[in-house]
Specification:
CATH superfamily of the largest domain: Medium-chain alcohol dehydrogenases, catalytic domain
Shape: globular
Distance between the termini: 13 Å
Strand content: 25-35%
Number of strands: 15
Largest sheet: 7 strands, mixed
CATH topology of the largest domain: Quinone Oxidoreductase, Chain A, domain 1
Number of helices: 9
Structural class: alpha/beta
Radius of gyration: 20 Å
Bound molecules: NADP nicotinamide-adenine-dinucleotide phosphate
Order of helices and strands: EEEHEEEEHEHEHEHEEHEHHEHE
Number of domains: 2
Helix content: 25-40%
CATH class of the largest domain: Alpha Beta
CATH architecture of the largest domain: Alpha-Beta Complex
Length: 325
């Protein structure tokens, strides 16, 4: 019998309960994995609170990111064997000591990347990959704005965007977070609790504004984020840590400068196995080359997942966080 965090109804961090949970046996196309480290993500909060509906109903095991070792493989899985180190990014099911997962959703972890780093970076790092390389192809000379710069996705994306040659502008809510973001690729960081970030971006860019805005804060930064874009710029709404963006008229995009707007998700961008492999390989490359450093800023026991959620929602975490089963 393994242990897992399960939720039986939506609610606050208190609904995360640490229970016995049988992982089951791997069927066709599946593997049984023993987790060594599990990543914490804001999407876990959405599944817990009910903003995102549980796909398989209750009880739900949250968690989208982990690393571990293969314990057993289904009869038709020939490219993995017990003992292999793997990692993955999916929607749910990771807050467990062991789990069964589809083999085509995992990748092998290369030497030079620890289990803890892999657990901390697969979901956040492959998100940075598709945002920078596919949603909008960031190139040298581009100017980008990324909100919540000192967060999990933020510290990875900042380093990667700098590596691509962009001018990287961020926002964060405290002096400590601003310093941290500046140490992770951000050229300029605006304290959006104290300063109007639209005016800040205008001043930094000399009125030229940004080619792309990546906004995962949602309600609190919309529609001001649109005012940080040049004409024909791209608005990427990829999360809602402060609450969802309210419905708006598409003609707003015309008024703000014939903007493009998209609401992407990692799970669509990496749905095909070939895209997942390219995405993971690109992430492993920038980490192994040293262009992107993965530091783990918070560690909790898996049984303390409720405390980890409180800290994430309370804006008390920076960078990546892992849960240890
Ligand atoms: N669409 C996708 O494919 C995808 C994939 C991964 C992640 N995401 C999204 O990316 C965002 C970042 O995820 P993450 O796991 O790395 O989280 P995170 O950035 O480590 O944490 C969220 C940050 O958002 C900021 N924030 C602003 N208003 C907030 C509020 N009212 N409550 C809580 N936080 C607030 C905080 O930074 P400050 O204190 O500096 O404001 C906080 O640290 C989330 O919105 C997540 O849903 C989307």
């Amino acid at each position: 019998m393994s242990k897992a965090i399960r939720i039986h109804a939506h609610g606050g961090p208190e609904v995360l309960t640490y229970e016995d949970a049988d992982p089951g046996q791997p069927g066709s196309g599946q593997i049984l994995v023993k987790h060594t480290a599990i990543g914490l993500n804001f999407i876990d909060v959405y599944y817990r609170s009910g903003l995102y509906p549980p796909q398989g109903g209750f009880p739900l095991i949250p968690g989208g990111e982990a690393a571990g070792v293969v314990l057993d493989v289904g009869s038709d899985v020939d490219w993995l064997k017990p003992g292999d180190r793997i990692a993955y990014a999916v929607t749910t099911g990771a807050y467990a000591g062991q789990r069964v997962i589809a083999a085509d959703r995992v990748v092998k972890v290369p030497d030079g990347i620890s289990d803890e780093q892999a657990a901390a970076m697969m979901l956040k790092g492959m998100t940075a990959e598709y945002l920078l390389r596919r949603t909008f192809k960031v190139k040298a000379g581009d100017t980008i704005l990324f909100h919540a710069a000192a967060g999990g996705v933020g510290l990875i994306l900042g380093q990667w965007a700098k590596h691509l040659g962009a001018t990287v502008i961020g926002t964060a809510s405290s002096t400590d977070k601003i310093e941290l973001a500046k140490a992770h690729g951000f050229d300029h960081v605006i304290n959006y609790r104290e300063q109007d970030f639209v005016a800040g971006v205008a001043a930094i860019t000399g009125g030229k504004k940004c080619d792309v805005v990546y906004d995962s804060v949602g309600n609190d930064t919309f529609p001001a984020s649109l005012d940080c874009l040049r004409t024909l710029g791209t608005f990427v709404s990829f999360g809602q840590s402060s609450g969802p963006i309210p419905p708006f008229s598409i003609s707003l995009l015309a008024q703000k400068g014939s903007l493009f707007a998209t609401r992407p998700t990692l799970f669509v961008y990496n749905a095909r196995r070939e895209d997942l492999e390219v995405s993971a390989a690109a992430l492993f490359d920038v980490v192994l080359s040293g262009a992107v450093k993965i530091k783990i800023n918070q560690r909790y026991a898996l049984s303390e997942a409720g405390k980890a959620h409180s800290d994430l929602e309370g804006r008390r975490t920076t960078g990546t966080t892992i849960l240890i089963p």
